[in-house]
Specification:
The complex is a heterodimer of chains A (618) and B (472). Chain A is mainly alpha-helical and 618 residues long. Among the domains of chain A are: 264-544, no CATH class; 548-615, no CATH class. In chain A, 75% of the residues lie in helices and 2% in strands. Chain A has helices spanning 2-6, 8-28, 37-55, 79-102, 109-128, 132-151, 157-186, 201-217, 225-232, 235-261, 269-290, 295-316, 319-350, 366-380, 386-401, 403-428, 444-462, 465-479, 492-516, 524-527, 532-540, 546-590, 595-615, and strands at 60-66, 71-77. In chain A, a hairpin with a 4-residue loop joins strand 1 and strand 2. In chain A, helix 4 (79-102) packs parallel to helix 13. The longest helix of chain A has 45 residues, at 546-590. By secondary structure, chain B is mainly alpha-helical. Chain B has helices spanning 4-16, 28-46, 49-55, 70-93, 97-119, 123-141, 147-178, 183-192, 197-214, 223-229, 232-259, 263-285, 290-310, 314-345, 356-359, 361-375, 381-395, 399-423, 440-458, 460-468; strands spanning 59-61, 64-66. In chain B, helix 1 (4-16) packs antiparallel against helix 5 (97-119), helix 12 (263-285) packs parallel to helix 18 and helix 17 (381-395) packs antiparallel against helix 18 (399-423). Classes of the chains: A mainly alpha (618), B mainly alpha (472).
Chain lengths: 618, 472
């Protein structure tokens, strides 16, 4: 093993170089070899997975100055980052396997696979780097690839892509300022050396960095590009990037800043801000998910909503909450990827994700249905799946900080369950439409990743100590100076409350189906409830989309500045010219005279000069 | 030896007008070219410190005092170049052999007068040479016997005579005060006394006379018409050197060597300079005639030179001298271009022209160079002289005038740009679709002047170090 640790820096740098180099090779591949690019990508992702597995649990740090600017390349591998690395590598491996079939016969394959590999390389870069400047480099790189990934999806995807670019770009700008501020306050850009107190500029730096982190994770109010991208972007991208990788690195960075860099404490305002963002995201996004009529769009709203649990968990700043938040991050990535993959399977076989056209697929696609049941149960927090345990931990932390946070979180759970009951009922039960009579189960390359993910849902639920034993030391390492060691336990009262809520959700669903006649409309009584219906109407018209509001404000501003510009332009182009021409014409008319007048001018000039000069004598 | 600069043109005129000379008379054009080129070469040669050290002592011709310094040299150089260009244009615009002979005679007269003006070091000989040049120019203006030129010349004669009277009166007063007309003697007397009414009155008279000759506002009534009505070659000569030498150079020479600078006089110069810039530029903006526009532009550019003089610093003098040289070059170039256009289109009305750079590419291109230099855009020559003037104004504390000088160059740019647009860019008038580039002489003159502009602009460190800064 000494041999292995000698080559550790090489392996770590390979994590970044290999996928990005692979992407470059893909770009350069001749047209005739283009058919191999799916296999090639799969192969690279596989090597990456092996590398991540080899590096799992290793500790390593490496610093080298670069270019004499006081800037250094700092790499740090420790339990947290190596844990994240293997998770990212695993998702990427499964999604590439899935893509081999799913992306077949689609346009822009080369670009899709190259962007996927670049995304993987940059994500690895974010996870291993220990310097804020370097981190920003990878972070911004991800933004560009994100744009490309969405844009290749379809002809109409460009608008969604630019929306994503603008929203994330603005947030990244905030993060850039936060990095400069943090670097200025701490005197270093090396993450593991930064320890800042909150308050004053420190709080501002935290907020700015937090905006960068939670916007990457897709929290409200920086979420609105995700549902749009869900429709137009390629589905494997949705399953990999917004559902898994972005959550991983966003929450990873949030955990780094709030645990290592700033030592968030329970009595600070920053913690409260984070928790409020968390519960607002949970409730608002799930409310929107409830009324969606598209498989992928519905899932994407849940992807937003679930981020709220992670932010809430980390924001509580108590050990149970933080452990729950990080555990939920892993769990969410697993089941949300799985859910998106089931969505992809349905789309592949039926060519639609519109819920009104789907139904009765359970018998025709039994494996997909099974995977859906497991992952949906996970996301709804049904015991004993993994989502249940992480949510319980978050509830525990939230209850410690205040009843309102707990109530909001559990209400979110209720609505999540309601929404998934509706989705499952509509798609897999009931009557199938005639055009879908001949639908079959998908190929093994597609259902194997779903099965593996579902397996992990069960595994991390039944044997939750497996991941928790990795997560707890991470949290303890950063909290050790203030708290005694944390022991995982489950609060029985909370479990009972959760089960009651889930039963209520089921009852509500049955009631809804009866009342509104049809599974698709099972939540219509919530949609058209008094007060809520008005809000929903406006939300469907994107009245609350921060991006749209921003667009309106920008348009107004540009209109005002344009008017102002016209005014200035008028002053320069019209007024000034008129004045000059009028004066010029006046002078010209003065010159249409004969020599006596000229003579008079000269003599008057002479008199004036003489008077002035002679007067100056006295 | 210096006296040769004056005597050679005089004796050449005498020689070529001898009776019985016959066909040898035709050689006068060639001889004039030789003389002008020799003067250019000599002027360039003189710009060496060693030479100047040995030749600043005064030489004597009859009872005139003559001497040479760098200010004189710049005028010598500019006048030789402009005379050379004028001669080229004249050979192409004057058809009759006899007329051409007369014209060259007059040019040699002008050369003798201008050289004498540069070298003279006493008031009376200065006046004599001014009158020689002035009388030559009266004849030159009406050379074509055009009725409009006649009326313009009449205005010039009237105003110029008034100026001459002022000047003679001023010289008489100085003679009365100091008992001599030599610069050195008068200066010694004036600096020995506290300023009094008589001295100041003679200064006023002289300065106003110089203003009339230079054509600054409000003494400029004669100028626009003279510039626009005289024959093409004469316009070049007039705007290039005559009005500058007669007005500005005389003013600079006398201010430098005789009555020195004082605050009140500087204020007058600064004010009149600025008024000239504004009035000249605004009037140029609305002109419809190419040559008249150039005339008003000259008024505006003279304003800059006066501003340089009015800064009262030696750097301002250097900038003014440099701008005289640059103005001589770029304004000659623009007048050559106008002559080229007039020779082809028979009109100088700008609204009838347009798109001419398609059919007259050399004229169009050199005109752009001239206009860039005139507007003071880097890196061509005009920029550096304006920069020196503005720097002198700032260093002497006249910030408002410095700012005005910079802001008002936008007006210069405005009228020149609109000229460029009306004449050379845009749609070609169908009437002129078949015209060709102007004759060789016009193109040659334009190319020579454009080359001087580019060289002066690009090698400004050399030009400044060798020609201009020795003034400081």
């Amino acid at each position: 093993m000494t041999n292995f640790s000698m080559y550790l820096p090489l392996y770590i740098s390979l994590l970044v170089i290999l996928p990005i180099g692979g992407a470059l090779i893909l770009f350069l591949l001749p047209q005739s070899l283009r058919k191999l690019n799916a296999i090639f990508t799969f192969f690279v992702a596989f090597i990456n997975l092996i590398l991540a597995a080899l590096l799992f649990g290793k500790n390593f740090s490496y610093v080298t100055p670069w270019l004499n600017f006081g800037f250094e390349i700092a790499i740090r591998l420790y339990n947290f980052s190596s844990f994240m690395l293997i998770a990212a590598a695993g998702f990427c491996f499964l999604i590439t396997l899935y893509s081999i079939v799913f992306m077949k016969n689609r346009e822009h394959q080369t670009q899709f696979y190259s962007y996927l590999l670049i995304t993987l390389g940059l994500t690895n870069g974010v996870l291993i780097c220990d310097n804020l400047f370097l981190l920003l480099f990878f972070w911004e790189g991800l933004l560009l690839v994100l744009f490309g990934m969405i844009a290749v999806g379809s002809k109409t995807a460009f608008k969604a892509a630019s929306k994503a670019l603008i929203i994330t770009g603005i947030c990244d700008l905030c993060m850039m300022i936060g990095i400069i501020l943090a670097g200025h306050l701490a005197g270093t850009l090396t993450i593991s050396k930064i320890h800042l107190a909150s308050g004053g500029l420190g709080s501002l730096a935290f907020l700015l960095l937090m905006i960068g982190a939670i916007s990457k994770a897709g929290s409200m109010p920086f979420h609105s590009w995700i549902p749009d991208a869900a429709i137009s972007a390629p589905l494997p991208f949705m399953a990999l990037v917004p559902a898994a990788l972005e959550k991983l690195i966003g929450i990873y960075f949030l955990a780094r800043i709030s645990l290592d860099m700033f030592k968030l404490s329970t009595n600070s305002a920053l913690s409260t801000i984070l928790m409020w963002i968390g519960i607002l995201t949970i409730i608002l996004a799930v409310m929107m998910a409830l009324i969606q009529k598209n498989y992928k769009r519905l899932l994407s709203y849940h992807a937003i909503s679930q981020v709220g649990y992670m932010i809430l968990g980390i924001g509580t700043a108590v050990p149970a909450g933080i452990v729950g938040g990080l555990f939920h991050m892993i769990n969410h990535a697993i089941y949300k990827s799985g859910l998106f993959l089931t969505g992809g399977a349905v789309e592949k076989q039926t060519n639609t994700t519109n819920l009104e056209e789907l139904g009765g697929l359970g018998k025709k696609m039994p494996v997909t249905f099974l995977c859906f049941i497991i992952t949906a149960a996970s996301i709804s927090g049904v015991p004993p799946f993994n989502g249940f345990f992480s949510k319980e931990l978050v509830y525990d932390g939230a209850l410690e900080r205040g009843l309102i946070f707990y109530l909001a979180a559990i209400a979110g759970s209720f609505l999540t369950a309601v929404s998934f009951l509706k989705l499952g009922h509509t798609v897999f039960l009931g009557k199938s439409s005639q055009s879908h009579e001949n639908v079959r189960e998908v190929k093994w390359q597609m259902f194997l990743p779903m099965l593996i993910l579902s397996f992990f849902c069960v595994l991390f639920g039944l044997m939750n100590s497996l991941p928790l034993n990795k997560i707890i030391p991470i949290v303890q390492a950063s909290l050790q100076d203030s708290r005694h060691s944390y022991v995982f336990h489950i609060n029985i009262k909370l479990i009972i409350a959760t089960v009651v809520v889930l039963i209520l959700a089921l009852l509500n669903h049955i009631f809804g189906v009866r009342l509104n006649k049809g599974a698709l409309h099972a939540s219509d009584h919530i949609r058209y409830a008094p007060i809520l219906s008005g809000i929903y109407d406006k939300a469907e018209r994107r009245f609350f989309d921060p991006f749209e509001i921003g667009l309106k404000v920008t348009r107004l501003l540009s209109k005002i500045t344009f008017k102002f510009d016209r005014l200035i332009n008028w002053v320069y182009d019209v007024l000034t010219v008129k004045i000059f021409y009028a004066t010029g014409s006046f002078i010209r008319r003065l010159h249409m005279v004969n020599y006596p007048v000229y003579l008079m001018w000269s003599l008057l000039g002479f008199a004036a000069v003489a008077l002035y000069l002679l007067y100056s004598l006295k | 030896m210096l006296a040769l600069l004056i005597t050679v043109p005089f004796f050449s005129i005498l020689f070529f007008n001898l009776p019985f000379l016959g066909s040898l008379r035709r050689a006068i054009t060639t001889w004039a070219y030789v003389l002008f080129c020799a003067q250019i070469a000599l002027a360039l040669r003189f710009f060496s410190p060693e030479f100047l050290n040995s030749f600043t002592s005064q030489a004597h011709l009859f009872n005139f005092n003559i001497a040479l310094d760098n200010l004189s040299l710049i005028i010598l150089l500019s006048s030789a170049i402009v005379l050379f260009i004028t001669l080229i244009i004249a050979t192409y615009t004057i058809d009759s052999q006899r007329q051409r002979f007369n014209f060259v005679n007059l040019l040699l007269f002008a050369q003798a007068g201008l050289n004498g003006l540069c070298l003279a070091r006493d008031m009376f000989s200065l006046y004599i040479f001014i009158e020689i040049v002035a009388v030559t120019s009266y004849i030159l203006i009406v050379f074509d016997k055009d009725i409009k030129a006649l009326s313009a010349a009449f205005k010039y004669v009237i105003l110029s005579t008034v100026a001459s009277v002022f000047m003679v009166a001023s010289i008489a007063l100085m003679l009365l005060i100091s008992g001599d007309t030599k610069f050195s003697v008068i200066q010694k007397t004036i600096s020995g006394q506290s300023p009094n009414f008589l001295i100041m009155f003679s200064v006023v008279l002289f300065v106003c006379a110089a203003f009339v000759k230079a054509g600054v506002v409000p003494f400029h009534g004669w100028l626009p018409e003279v510039y626009s009505r005289s024959p093409a070659a004469v316009s070049v000569l007039f705007s290039g050197i005559i009005s500058k030498a007669l007005g500005i150079y005389t003013l600079m020479r006398v201010a430098k060597d005789v009555f020195g600078v004082n605050v009140a006089l500087n204020n007058v110069l600064l004010f009149i300079g600025t008024v000239s810039i504004i009035v000249g530029a605004l009037a140029a903006l609305v002109q419809k005639d190419f040559k008249k526009m150039l005339g008003f532009s000259s008024i505006s550019q003279i304003g800059y030179i006066i501003l340089g003089v009015g800064s009262g610093t030696i750097l301002g003098f250097a900038g003014a001298a440099f701008h005289i040289f640059n103005h001589a070059i770029f304004k000659s170039l623009l007048f050559v271009n106008s002559a080229a256009i007039e020779s082809r289109t028979r009109t100088t009305h700008m609204h009838e022209l347009g798109g001419l750079s398609k059919v007259m590419p050399i004229t169009g291109f050199t005109s752009i160079l001239g206009f860039i230099s005139a507007a003071g855009l880097p890196p061509l020559a005009g920029f550096w002289s304006k920069l020196l003037i503005v720097m002198a104004l700032i260093l002497s504390g006249h910030f408002i005038y410095a700012i005005l000088a910079i802001v008002l160059s936008a007006l210069t740019l405005a009228y020149l740009l609109s000229m460029q647009r009306l004449v050379f860019f845009g749609k070609l008038n169908e009437r002129f679709i078949k015209i060709k580039e102007a004759e060789f002489g016009f193109s040659l003159a334009a190319i020579i002047l454009a080359a001087i502009i580019i060289i002066t602009g690009l090698f400004y460190p050399f030009v400044l170090g060798k020609f201009i800064l020795p003034l400081v």
